[in-house]
Hints:
globular, three-stranded antiparallel sheet
Amino acid sequence: MKKYECDPCGYVYDPAVGDPDNDIAAGTAFEDLPEDWVCPICGAGKDEFKEAE
């Protein structure tokens, strides 16, 4: 699964880890995150993320 990086702050969402602090289980693809999910660091929306290199 692909990793995605937050453009404003550089946080990388790694599907292998998920976002346990926000009840997102490991193995959750970026595309499957809820539409209202935001970056846990800066609060940017999913539209502010780009595919990580």
